[in-house]
Amino acid sequence: MPGKPAPIKKSPAKKAANKKPEPAPESEPPPVEAAPVDAPPAEAAPADAPPAETGPVEAGPAEGEAAPAAEGLAAPAVDLLNAEGVTPAVPAEAALMEEPPKAPTPPPPAVPTSAPLDVSVEDVNDSSLTVKWKTPGTIGDSGLDGYLVEYRKDGTTDWVVAQEELSQNNLYCIKNLTSCDVLHLRVVAVNRGGRSEPGSLAEPVLIREIGERPKIRVPRHLKSCFIKQVGEQINLVIPFLGKPKPVVSWLKDGQPVDTRVNIRNSHKDSIIFIRSAQREDSGIYEMTVKVDSFEDKATIALQIVDRPGSPADVKLVDTWGFNAALEWTPPKDNGNTEITGYTIQKADRKTGVWFSVLENYHRLTATITDLIMGNSYSFRVFAENQVGVSETSAVTKGVATIQKTGIVYKPPEYPERDYSEPPRFTTPLADRAATVGYTTKLLCSVRGCPTPKIEWLKNKVIIGDDPKYRQNSTQGICSLEIRKPCCFDGGVYTCRAKNEQGEAAVSCKLQVKRTCLKQTEGEVVKRQIHVDCFPLFTVCMLS
User: Fold this and answer.
1) Beta bridge partners of 301
2) Coil, strand or helix at 29
């Protein structure tokens, strides 16, 4: 490789300006990647590094001047000069900064998983067996590679692996089994840490064809909580399926059923009978129907309820005016069911008779109002649930006395209103036609305040007290009755009403007609021909 030309020599003034008290290697970063080819010659720099640190900065250019005079070995050293003519001691610092590599962290030791959970039989026939299980509760950092299913015949100790490769599923079918063999099963989880503890089947399995799997058919009314009162009879029938005849067992809250509960099983149903239910019969009843290694379970919730006890600690908090404030706490015995309300009663100390003031009340505080002045009252509270009201009550120890106070009744003042108005006819008179000899009546209605005085006129002449006419005025209804009118009673009739506010009048026309007879040879024929009767003359038409 040809050598590079030497750098231009700087003037002494420029050298003095560039002179600094700090060493040159610390002023600029080392250009390590600038010339990777010249790396071998640069290895000789550590020998010159001590003089560079102790000597002045101008020593760099002096060495640079001698570099062109040297042979080809000095040419790579020129590349290490910076722009200011200073040679940085890069290799020396790099050697000091390097640290030995750290040892890699060893991986954690491999640990096997916990045992598979809930190993059970999914299906069985005369030549195969299907087993299922759940994933182990603890797997760890080593993970899970798969499962091994192993079995052995009853009476032997040699376990046989059922599959050639690890099973990735939580279900496996073992085939080509011999009928009527009794097998023990276990499942093992495998990972880098090895085999886990086995999860085993609780009881051995008989390899044979099952006629019908067990199945409990819970009635609809038993799928929710079944509620009965204390003393009532309980008779529950739960049907089921299964062949051959299943084995039926019962548990109450995980314990054997008490002898008070009678259980009768048949090939198709199971009956629970309790002659007189008590509150201790409440609980969760679990029914299990089993055919060989297959089983079905069902739960029935039974709740026996009773009336609640009385509320506790009833207090009379305050009394003011005609009111009294009460408070209490819920009863300690709720009758094995929820409290639905309270009933509050009061009694006057004079009579001692109790009256209900609040029913189905849901709060624990109440204010009793409308108490009678001068009386003293006691209060009691009953609790209530879905069965009924408690048999006993809690009575207040104190007595609420309503003090007598001087009360003066002041009637309210109402502004006076003037209801006076002039007469006004609401129903006017209507024109009428009457027949001679037949009584007729004229009607109208009037209102006014004060009550107006009524006068009747015929042809603008006041009728007065003529006995032929009957005048009547009741509740504003005015009537004029004309008794057996004749031809002279026709005309214009007027009703006039007067009071202090004014007067009003209505009129109508009355026509009076009569009946004429027609006479023929040998007989008389009646024909009604109505003719107007006029006061001056009468016209009769005969044919």
Assistant:
1) 284
2) coil
Q: Quick one: DSSP state of residue 60?
A: H
Q: Which two tokens stand for residue 258?
A: 């008490």
Q: Which residues contact 261 (CB under 8 A, 6 or more apart)?
A: 252, 272, 273, 274, 281
More confident residue, 286 or 29: 286
| H or E stretch at 482 | strand 477-482
Please state the φ and ψ torsions of residue 130, each to the nearest 5 degrees.
-110, 125
**What is d(CA 199, CA 478) in angstroms, rounded to the nearest whole number?**
111
What are phi and psi for residue 239, nearest 5 degrees?
-80, 160
Nearest Cα to 112, choosing from 81, 165, 148, 79?
A: 148
Q: Whose structure tokens read 């600038």?
A: 34
**Token pair of 405, please?**
């106070």
pLDDT tens column, 144-182: 899 999 999 988 888 999 888 888 999 999 988 888 888
CA-to-CA separations, 391 to 227, 307, 326, in angstroms, rounded: 21, 7, 21
- Both tokens of 520, joined, read 């023929």
pLDDT mean over 231-247: 91
- Three-state SS for 511? strand
SS3 438: coil
d(CA 383, CA 364): 11
Which residue type is seen at 424?
A: R
pLDDT computed for residue 18 by the predictor: 47
Report residue 372: phi and psi, to 5°.
-90, 135
Lowest mean pLDDT among 338-342, 490-494, 508-512, 537-541: 537-541
Per-residue tokens: 277: 């239910």
For 122-135, how does the pLDDT look when each residue is reduced to its tens digit (9 = 90+)?
888 888 889 999 99
CA distance 512 to 486: 7
Instruction: Determine the Cα–Cα distance for residues 162 and 149; give it in Å rounded to an integer.
Output: 6
If one compares 186 and 103, the residue with the highest pLDDT of the two is: 186
Residues paired with residue 189 on neighbouring β-strands, in sequence order = 147
Amino acid at 291: V
Contact (CB, 8 A) for 235 and 284: no
Task: Report the alpha-carbon distance of residue 117 to residue 199 in Å, rounded.
Answer: 6
What's the DSSP call for residue 167? Answer: B
Token pair belonging to 436: 């001679």
For residue 361, name the pLDDT band (cuts at 50, 70, 90).
Answer: very high
Alpha carbon separation from 70 to 3, 181, 291, 403 (Å, rounded): 10, 100, 105, 130
